[in-house]
Here is the input.
Amino acid sequence: MAIVLGALALASGAAGATRLDPGVSSNEVKIGGTVPLSGVAAAYASVGRGADAYFKYWNETHGGVKGRKIDYEYLDDQYDPSKTVDQTRRLIQEDKVFAVFNSLGTEQNLAVRALLNGAKVPQIFVASGGLTFGRDYKQYPYTIGFLPSYVAEGTIYGKYLRTLKKKATIAVLYQDDDYGKEMLRGLEKGLAGKGRIVSRQSYDPTASDVNSQVAALKSSRANTFLIAATPKYAIQAYIQAHKLGWKPQIVVNQVASASNVMKIVQSSVGSLANGSVSIGFVKDPTDPRFKKDKVVALYRSVLKKYQPSADPNDVYNVYAMAVAYEFINVLAHAGNPPTRDGLMRAVTHMNDKKNPFLYPGVVVHTTPQSRFPITQAQLIRWKGGHWNAFGKLVSAR
Amino acid sequence: MRAWLARGAMLAVGVLLFFLLPHVVSDFRLFELARVGQYFIAMLGLYVLTIYTGQVSIGHGAFMAIGGYTTGVLVYHRHWEDVRTLPIAGLVAGVAGLLFGLPALRLRGLYLALATFALAVSVPAVIKKWESLTGGSTGLLFATFHENRWYYNVTWATAGILVVLAWIVLASPVGRTWRALRDSEVAASSFGVWVPLYKTLAFGISAAYAGVAGGLLVILSLGANPNSFPIQLSIYLLVGVAIGSFAGIPGILVGAAFVEYVQVYAPKWVSDSPGIPTFAFGAALVLAAFAATAFSALTIRWQTGLKRGPAKETS
Here is the structure.
């Protein structure tokens, strides 16, 4: 009798399963992604941990999305694309996730893009500003990014510099990979011939320092210095410029302009940090403007409860919650029960003006033909030990 | 003769497992096992170099990179079928090993190890600079991929062939000469052995094994990327040699499985807090070394108990 019942239960379970997409059950949606929890880029681990904290908070306070709790599994890929391939295989073949979400790194996401699109698994809100993730959707319809592209960011700096009274002569330090080169390309595009790049120096992303590059840039006598580098190298660039007595206008890219990074810079170089320009699109928890912001307060309490060892001043945690918030939003529009195709339809029809973790006024907007969710940013200037917004929101397209 | 019987038995068990496992484990586990096979092949080459000729290399990850990029370039630029590139990957890495082996002849022990380490540090940087061929830091992405079962079959069939080849070489006069060299270079050369030839040859062969493993790594990773050949890779390969030195080929197998699984499961089973997985890996490594020593001591005691000598090499 028990056997018959067991068989019946199995049969009905199997029949029920065929109607649901992988990773979806009556009370749960399983998603996953890769982030570097160890290795050279372990600083970006908060992009996974912060999102996990927000999902846990949401599950507990709202019971998930339409009664389904979100189970987010983020695996360590050590920033090695071959490990990204293994871990992503594990997610889709062994853990059978509904979607791959918030995986970090340009090369890392490129390594699994064909695999995921071949298996028709959504690869959404890729944590990289690589242009290709928003541009090449015809070939890879299951892939979409989240943050502004590096080209767009470079363009903003170019446009800003060309409005200055004094003609900018620019020295650029950039990382020798797609990310750095796209930033440089954007800068040229934004300048449109109205400012001059007098010197450009690249560094290898595994280099020990950038001192010789900064010395070479200084000798160009540029009056503006664009640092298109990750935090470690950006800090070194500031310090070396300071040591050499070079006092240019500094523009530092968004991936290195988190307040906790800038505080280190300021303590080492003092006044050279003042007046630095960057962009932002998520609320900076150290910005005094947001001291009484309810969402920043919520952010702190969520992080404290669900990721107690995390640093609340690390802006990547805010980014992570912004992207987790948006995932919850699109999941609610992916059908009931949610399907993978429904999810892709939802992420290509976003129009969210209220993502509370983003700068006021920044809209998350996509159409099937325009797949860059965030296309606005705020210019910010470092003064008085924190970032200050100036001017209106600018287009980051 | 007895040694060949033992090898035959080992091979039979291996073949049996090869056909049996796909019926027992899940599809994804076959992919993990293919990764184990990839490490196993590289470790096997390094094991032969270290145990049979006494040369130490902490830079075999570089030869994996050379083999891997040979596969990458042939598939990406020349549209070769991936599995057909493996012999070429071995050949190119082997030639690179021979060339590196020549200057390395002047170095011994620790100094040789340091020179090979320099190789592991520099090769990925060179690969990045040579962008038109290697795709720079983006690497070379493959457009086609296979079933997990296919990866498993190819990797372990290759591993089987390479094990048999290693046995044949070790049983040949070349293998005998290597052992003579390891025990005493002076004695060997006074018997007319041309030392440089045999030492360089060993380096070349082990590099070729690493090259094939690198080719497989790239095929399994759906493309070649410089970040896939970090310095740690060369260190990991030594784990296999360390365990293998106590327990032979089964030991290398354990070493290969160790590198694959502890990396993956340490964050899951221990903790994924910053630094803990790396620490767990190191701690597990020390434990494994102790376990291997204990195992080796026990087997030796068991063998002497049976009134046999500690039969390390009976060819």
Q: What stands out?
A: The mean pLDDT of chain A is 91.
